[in-house]
Amino acid sequence: MPLRLAPCDLPALDAAAVDAVVLFVGEEERPLFGLAGLVDWRLAGGLTRLLRDQLLVGSLGESLLTLAPGLPTPRVFVFGLGPSRDAAVRFPDAAARALATLQKAGMKRVLVGLPELPPAPIAAPVLNQTFGPAPLDVVLAGDLAILARLLPAAARAP
User: Fold this and answer.
1) Is residue 58 helix, strand or coil?
2) What angle do CA 108, 26, 113 make, to 5 degrees?
3) What is the pLDDT of residues 70-84, one digit of tens each?
4) Which of 6, 45, 49, 50 is most buried, taking the most CB atoms under 10 A from its CB?
5) How many of the other CB atoms lie within 10 Å of CB of 104?
6) Span 124-154, pLDDT tens digits
7) What's the CATH number for 4-156?
8) CB–CB of 157/24 below 8 Å?
9) Backbone φ and ψ of 100, nearest 5°
């Protein structure tokens, strides 16, 4: 399915017509930023409370599904990236595991918050290989100018 791009902002989050929001969080990512920070804001600090109570750590291989009152989608999936220093290197494997999990859960269209990306020559192939052949309809949320340069064939999400 073709990749779609959306800005990483509250209006795009509030208008997202998706089955789930997908977040990737590192162990030291405190406070949450990007789409994870926006989701946390809409959940009145719900993700921060999970982190504070150690119900979510962000460790490599960790996964969590939580309900999302206050969002247009009922589900938020959070996947851990482990230590932040090498999270970009681990992201392709974590994303592949996440996509497999989402497919097993019956998700059809998801909004994905990307972690901090490596430099463009590395990020473009990683994003194309990870999400390009995805069996799901994937909307990547981020800086549209950067994502459009990395993924010129991607369309803007409706």
Assistant:
1) coil
2) 35
3) 899 989 999 999 998
4) 6
5) 8
6) 887 887 887 778 899 999 988 888 888 888 8
7) 3.40.220.10
8) no
9) -65, -45
